[in-house]
Amino acid sequence: MIQVNEPLLNGNEKKYLNECIDTGWISSEGPFVKQFEERMALSAGRKHGIAVCNGSVALDLAVQALGIGVGDEVILPSFTIISCAAAIVRAGAIPVFIDADATTWNIDTNLIEQALTPRTKAIMVVHIYGLPCDMDKVSAIAKKHNLYIIEDAAEMHGQTYNGKPCGGFGDVSTFSFYPNKHVTTGEGGMVLCNNDAIADKCRSMRNLCFIPERRFKHEELGYNFRMTNLQAALGMAQAERLDEFIVKKRTIGKLYDELLSSLKNIVQLPLTTTPYADNIYWVYAMVVNDNIPLNAQQCMDELLKLGIGTRPFFYPMHQQPVFKKASWYTPQHLAVSERIAEKGFYIPSGLAITTAQQEQVAEAVHKLFSTYK
Ligand SMILES: *Cc1c(COP(=O)(O)O)cnc(C)c1O
What we know:
The protein is α/β, with parallel strands linked by helices. The chain has helices at 13-23, 31-43, 55-65, 82-90, 135-145, 196-206, 229-239, 242-260, 296-305, 321-324, 335-343, 355-368; strands at 48-52, 73-77, 94-98, 120-126, 148-152, 160-161, 164-165, 172-176, 189-193, 210-211, 214-218, 267-268, 273-274, 277-278, 284-288, 311-312, 344-347. The structure holds pyridoxal-5'-phosphate. Residues 54-56, 80-81, 83, 126, 152, 154-155, 176, 178, 189 line the site of pyridoxal-5'-phosphate.
């Protein structure tokens, strides 16, 4: 069985984890946490990094630290993970869903302005699967209408937009360090920003909003979203190899491009490049063409029989059962998000994958589509 993602943990991971155990520093008070924050902030060109226990709560902090709440609306792509919309809803604000671009699968920036209302406070951009959103366009809209930008860069460590690091755009950015991300801490996340007050607010909210003058006294309610020293130790060992990992991801993507190129009348493969970035293939994704009578689930079932692990694309936010029950919900038809969610899936591309495994995966994919050639 070839797993959809196997992380690579053969650098200094053991050494740094042993340091935690040998010194007894295992909680969030340990020294790796600050080192990891500084390292990731530097890599994204940010002044502040605030490490937290996962990428989902990083989004919660980002939204709340900007003061977004009841009566506010936030624009975001429908084609993303629930964490993005959940952070907005939990803050008391209303998510406004935008369709995806059919070629990059990112938010269709042409549709943002028509969704603005006097209540719009922010645009949450989410870079999907390996290519960044068109940030110049989003930044221009945000500037013109005086909106915050929240950048979910969970899938984008090491990627750039026109040479500038992802995680460095807008008012607040977030990373995830889940094992399928380019830098992993097992579970983990980070908020990144340049503004001192926003950083202070995130640090306070992450740590139960203890007031500085008197521990165990609180003027506001916070959370325990702290990252442990053990997680940060793993993260440091991973972050040291980020450049190498990005090269490896691109090599994996290039090999699949070659092995699967003859399928281009059957499936849409990832774009290798856009005017502002080369793909880093966070995952190697594909969308089955409309003229092929297979949906993603059928493809995934067949590939599983051949020993290949896969994952389906995101399920669109505007169709989530949990949101259909909400008072703010209005039915929408977002054709691209719906189509790619139905016909899209991704194949194994973890950092530990070998060339032989990739060849085996490609062979299985060819077999799956052999009757349609
Ligand atoms: C992985 C991911 C998250 C959530 O991160 P967790 O650490 O799993 O909570 C958020 N946004 C995007 C785009 C992601 O890919």
